[in-house]
Write a structure and sequence with these properties.
By secondary structure, this protein is mainly alpha-helical. Helix content is 50%, strand content 2%. The strands form two sheets. The protein has a two-stranded antiparallel ribbon. Strands 3-4 form a two-stranded antiparallel sheet. The N terminus and C terminus are likely disordered.
């Protein structure tokens, strides 16, 4: 069908048809997303649709009824997702006396269990902001010995995924900076080299903790000295806001440090400042503007723009705030790459393209404008976005499979991250729908996410593998965890029996929970990862209670349902109080102590790192990465051939490189439009 003669359907008006034709033309000729304008709408979105909802819906979500009321789509920020689970528990408690409530939900023991879960919620109020320590000194240049020691680790574990620097140029910059008789303190390069050392030290500390080779090493003591240098940069961020490429690079490395060692607001502030400088310098344009003081080659400009674009999308979905860089508002084209390009370049290209889909997901499903859409319009959007993600999978599916002969084993963690990114993308889309089919697909993708995490956990402990696992936990919303748990809570609310897959689901939760605990830096519990550990601990407690409740007889009024014991917590491995400046007591049925390092981080209401533990933090015990041998006879969202990969029975979470035919057969609005961009 020709784009310019697209018929007007019941779901589109004549003006909408013109917008679709314009969008199709842009996709066919430019190969990238190009909306008619920032304010044009692709669909007409009425404030209210008269479509009726199916009372027998599979899982309450999006605009579906949740305990008698409709709930809007919540922010994709992790704390909002966890708060959604707490809200669902509150609804179950408040409605237990309703005549429509299942008899089991009115059981006193069930109510005790639910009330305990709700009162133990660890993120009720914003946590206090201890602030950044500012000693009014400039950022000092670290010893070159330390920079040389961790340069390779930085290039392989961080720069390979976020190519902020060309390797040769970075090494030349090191030589130039240290060739000076007195290296300049307070310069962007002093901050960059400090960040290289801090990131390398942190990763080595995690490897030592996870492998238990030396869990009480000196890495953390060394990190404190270098983090003081980062404190100086954060406290005086204005000194790095002069428009220049090197300042953008310094801010991007500081964003990586902020994500690892500070509250989420540091990552957000550094990332947004870098994006602002990039627009001033015109990195979003295809050619530099006249008068640019620093001119980069086109390939370098494109590379740096792609890093900014990807980090901006991660920031958006971790905080729920709008993007700072939009592809439709730039002249950069994410063109196809040659077949002879190395595998790592192909992987980065696949990530670039899925970030474009994240931009569309935010605009069409999570933005303020999207929240005003009615039921029918939202369902149409969900369908089109899910098919767009499937088109991406058809194009890049071979990169996610271990049988590609061009891939080295060291790229396996990055390949698994790409697979995880795809399934998270589908969860972010499908959780906005309310139909049974969409919800079942979402559960399949949620389970696939957890299996990918479990498979990377089972790999031998390496810096590259651990860096990939950290990115998967820190860059992507935890919607797969929360939506899977919400399904089981809904099962309890209906009074139904435990789901057949509940055993496998809870073992996945336990496996991941055990694995991520030793990754937390013991003296930095207020980092995003530290808060995530607390949140997943609470989700696991909810899950164990729900499974224990649904397995008991709900027909006995006097049955007392108690939360299952928190056997996954090993309080004996907690650091003694003398190792930390202050301590926080816990009160969720488990005795233990966790430690808070003062003077580190900002508060941010939209991120998981910004909420108080309300004295419910559990100890950060250390545990080995044990093998994961849980049988997973679940419906997998991958079972029709994609790309050129062949099946592999050794894959933990897949039976092969295939996608579910039921997903592929889903009919939606004029999907030829999207498939033009991602041809099979």
């Amino acid at each position: 069908m020709d784009a310019t003669t697209a018929p007007t359907t019941a779901g589109t008006s004549p003006s909408t048809t013109a917008a679709l034709a314009s969008l199709r033309h842009g996709l066919q000729n430019g190969g990238h997303f190009l909306l008619p304008s920032a304010s044009d709408a692709i669909f007409n979105f009425p404030d209210n649709d008269s479509g009726s909802l199916d009372d027998g819906h599979f899982l309450p979500n999006s605009l579906a009824r949740d305990h008698g009321a409709e709930r809007p789509i919540d922010s994709p920020a992790s704390v909002s997702l966890i708060q959604g689970v707490a809200g669902q528990i509150s609804g179950m408690i408040s409605n237990h006396d309703s005549k429509d409530a299942p008899y089991g939900l009115r059981d006193a023991g069930v109510q005790v269990a639910l009330q305990h879960l709700r009162t133990s919620f660890p993120f009720e109020i914003p946590c206090p902001d201890p602030g950044i320590i500012d000693d009014n000194r400039p950022v000092t240049t670290p010893p070159r010995l330390m920079v040389d020691l961790f340069m390779e680790s930085f290039l392989c574990s961080f720069n390979a995924s976020f190519p902020i620097f060309d390797e040769a140029e970075l090494r030349r910059a090191v030589d130039t900076h240290y060739a000076a008789e007195q290296p300049v303190d307070g310069s962007p390069w002093a901050l960059i080299f400090t960040n290289v050392v801090v990131l390398g030290l942190g990763l080595e500390a995690q490897v030592a903790s996870v492998s238990k080779s030396h869990p009480k090493s000196m890495h953390h003591e060394l990190m404190s000295s270098f983090l003081r240098n980062c404190d100086r940069a954060i406290a005086n961020l204005d000194s790095f806001t002069r428009p220049s490429i090197v300042n953008i690079q310094a801010l991007l490395t500081l964003a990586l440090v902020g994500r690892e060692f500070y509250k989420n607001a540091v990552f957000e502030k550094a990332c947004q400042t870098a994006c602002h400088l990039a627009r001033i310098l015109g990195l979003h344009r295809s050619t530099p503007s006249e008068g640019d003081a620093q001119v980069l080659e086109k390939g370098d400009r494109d590379r740096l723009f792609r890093v900014l674009y990807a980090m901006d999308k991660y920031r958006t979905f971790l905080t729920g705030y709008p993007c700072d860089i939009y592809l439709f508002d730039s002249e950069i084209q994410l063109d196809d790459i040659a077949e002879e390009e190395p595998p790592n370049t192909k992987l980065n290209h696949a990530f670039d393209h899925i970030m474009r889909i994240w931009e569309e997901i935010y605009l069409t499903l999570y933005s303020k404008r999207a929240s005003m859409a009615g039921v029918k319009a939202r369902a149409q959007r969900v369908s089109s976005m899910a098919d767009l993600a499937m088109s991406w999978a058809q194009r890049y599916g071979a990169l996610m499979e271990p049988t590609d002969p061009g891939f080295e084993s060291k790229l396996d963690p990055r390949r698994l991250e790409l697979k995880y990114c795809y399934h998270v993308t589908q969860v972010l889309i499908l959780r906005c729908g309310w139909g049974n089919h969409s919800q079942r697909q979402m559960l399949d993708h949620s389970r696939a996410c957890l299996r990918v995490l479990a498979s990377i956990v089972n790999m031998p402990v390496t810096t590259v593998g651990l860096a990939s696992l950290a990115r998967m936990l820190q860059n992507y919303p935890i919607a797969s965890f929360t939506e899977l748990l919400r399904f089981h809570l809904h099962n309890l609310g209906r009074g139904g029996p435990s789901d057949d897959a509940a055993n496998d689901d809870i073992e996945l939760f336990r496996c991941i929970n055990r694995a991520i605990k030793p990754m937390q830096h013991p003296d930095l519990p207020q980092t995003y990862l530290g808060r995530l550990v607390v949140g997943i601990n609470w989700l696991l407690q909810v899950f164990e209670t729900v499974i224990g409740t649904t397995r008991k007889s709900l027909n006995t009024p006097d049955s007392q349902i108690q939360p299952m014991p928190m056997s996954y917590v090993n309080s004996s491995n907690s650091r003694p109080p003398s190792h930390s400046a202050s301590t926080i007591a816990m009160s969720s049925g488990v005795d233990g102590i966790a430690h808070l390092r003062s003077g580190r981080g900002f508060s941010q209401a939209s991120s998981i790192s910004s909420c108080s533990e309300k004295e419910h933090r559990r100890p950060f015990g250390e545990a080995e990465l044990t093998s994961f041998g849980v049988a997973t006879p679940l419906t997998d969202p991958m079972s029709a051939t994609v790309g050129q990969g062949s099946s592999s029975n050794s894959s933990l979470y897949l039976d092969g490189p295939q996608f579910d035919s039921t997903v592929m057969s889903d009919q939606s609005w004029d999907m030829d439009l999207w498939k033009d961009m991602f041809p099979s």
